[in-house]
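Lab meeting, item 3. Inverse folding demo.
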């Protein structure tokens, strides 16, 4: 796993904490791996679910599967639908150039539907990051 790729992803997400941005829906409560205990809703937690290297004609490509879990209170799903749309606009088709990598591209693999999770609503979206290594 490349820390440079994950850092770029985190930077991309944190830069969306302005009006109309993805992180703004969650008041900046977007966390890697795990949210703090007793965290207020809405909240988003993302984690790496797939981590592999593929051999290509140009060398190697790092492939990361990223699962985004977005939670909101049980009385509404509107904010989650908005967050899902904003996440897609933020990441689907995003391309970046990083040190040690030719490029990083991201695409939406699966977009979830709202479902009840205990006393909250949950939407899970999966993205794939591909980083061509130099």
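The presenter then showed the designed sequence:
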């Amino acid at each position: 796993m490349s820390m440079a790729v994950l850092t770029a992803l985190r930077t991309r997400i944190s830069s969306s904490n302005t009006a109309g941005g993805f992180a703004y829906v969650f008041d900046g409560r977007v966390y890697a791996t795990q949210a703090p205990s007793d965290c207020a809703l809405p909240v988003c937690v993302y984690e790496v679910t797939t981590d592999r290297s593929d051999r290509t004609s140009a060398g190697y490509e790092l492939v990361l599967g990223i699962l985004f879990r977005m939670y909101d209170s049980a009385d509404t799903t509107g904010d989650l639908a908005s967050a899902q749309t904003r996440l897609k606009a933020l990441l689907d088709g995003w391309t970046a150039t990083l040190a040690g990598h030719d490029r990083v591209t991201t695409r939406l693999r699966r977009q979830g539907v709202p479902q009840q999770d205990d006393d909250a609503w949950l939407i899970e979206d999966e993205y794939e990051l591909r980083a061509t290594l130099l």
